[in-house]
Amino acid sequence: xxxxxxxxxxxxxxxxxxxxxxxxxxxxxxxxxxxxxxxxxxxxxxxxxxxxxxxxxxxxxxxxxxxxxxxxxxxxxxxxxxxxxxxxxxxxxxxxxxxxxxxxxxxxxxxxxxxxxxxxxxxxxxxxxxxxxxxxxxxxxxxxxxxxxxxxxxxxxxxxxxxxxxxxxxxxxxxxxxxxxxxxxxxxxxxxxxxxxxx
Length: 199
Ligand SMILES: O=C(O)CCC(=O)C(=O)O
Ligand SMILES: [Fe+2]
Known about the structure:
Layout: E1 17-21, H1 27-40, E2 47-50, E3 53-56, E4 60-65, E5 71-73, E6 76-78, H2 85-98, E7 104-110, E8 117-120, E9 133-139, E10 142-148, E11 151-160, E12 165-169, H3 172-175, E13 176-180, E14 190-196
Antiparallel strand pairs: 1-12, 2-3, 4-7, 5-6, 7-14, 8-13, 9-12, 9-14, 10-11, 10-13
The structure holds 2-oxoglutaric acid and fe (ii) ion.
């Protein structure tokens, strides 16, 4: 089979596999998807528990998935919304690229440079032993950071452009933390969709 997607090769030096696929969607398609997803998604501003305290997440979220695939993290349980036509199409693209199926998606809306996601691993048990995660980006370019859990000084940066897909697979979620930090640069909205497969 021919590979319809061109990627950077593995960007990690060891203990994982992260690949960047720029321009999977055209600038026009990306802008259309951004506007459509902003308008049509029932965004929620969730509170999470950090050290026993309720804090609002610095972003808006929505959880989609096959019926019955509820997802829990940081003390909240999300019931999935049913796939929309748009998300079902994007899921097909992500599946073709990853070479496997997905049954869930987390949508993140970063309203501006002050919205962010802290350092974490997507290593919940329900994601299975070696989670494969495809991350689609639309809207503003934001810097995505990776660092190894035993060598936290060396931080790798990937600028995630609109229309791109980032693929994380293999041992990545065991050994590497990732984050989308705040930035003082003026930023318009960015939407991120991470397709995942829950057991
Ligand atoms: O916004 C991003 O690119 C990262 C999102 C992420 O890490 C997640 O949803 O687990
Ligand atoms: Fe993540």
